[in-house]
Amino acid sequence: MITVEEAITGRRSIRAFLDKPVPRELIDKLLTIAGRAPSGSNIQPWKVWVLQGEAKTALSAELKAQHDAGIEGEWPYNYYPVKWREPYLGRRRACGFGLYAKVGIAKGDTSAMKAQHGRNFLFFDAPVGLIFTIDDDMELGSWLDYGMFLQSIMVAARAFGLETCPQAAFAPRHATIKKRLGIPDNETVVCGIALGYADWSNKVNEFTPDRVPLKDFVHYVDRLKP
Fold this sequence. Notes:
The protein is an alpha+beta fold and 226 residues long. It has helices at 4-9, 24-34, 53-68, 88-102, 110-118, 140-157, 174-181; strands at 47-51, 128-135, 163-167, 187-196. The chain is built from seven helices and four strands. The protein has one domain (4-79, 119-209): NADH Oxidase (3-Layer(aba) Sandwich), CATH 3.40.109.10. It has a four-stranded antiparallel β-sheet, sandwiched between helices.
């Protein structure tokens, strides 16, 4: 049985999945477990839209066609900084360059980069696509709660031999997603997650970006300032 430490430290964003279905009962069990995530006053602000089979295939085809045609989406919220700065810019570039190098995309090959990005909309061929929404009137605290819910899904999935890829790429396509899935107008598309069984023979799944050492983000306070 996988330990909690292994479930967390072994998690990575999987970008190639096997053509192997995930039973609905297992999806329900996973989401039930994740639903135990904490939230302020237990309001549980998350909503999940599960896509499989023809519905997933049809939505993926439409979104990828938009991407391939150069039709830009519009973010419903600010996911990234409005103005990039270090050290975050360097970390972002290292992640992108590392991924492209792993799949053999040369620096500056924008067409190949675009094609790789377009695979997001196929949920990287995972058998299950999850779309997450939140009511528009929820505040920042509920978005923090939402992160704990998403992390719970990704960690718990590994206990059942499943892997995931969290995907912010779906948020800018919220207009099409909301229309096709029947999502109410007063909900915001947060992100998507690809869910399934990893294809470990594909080298793209070998990529794991570096994590910064503790000294870069941990501060032990032994004495308060006067």
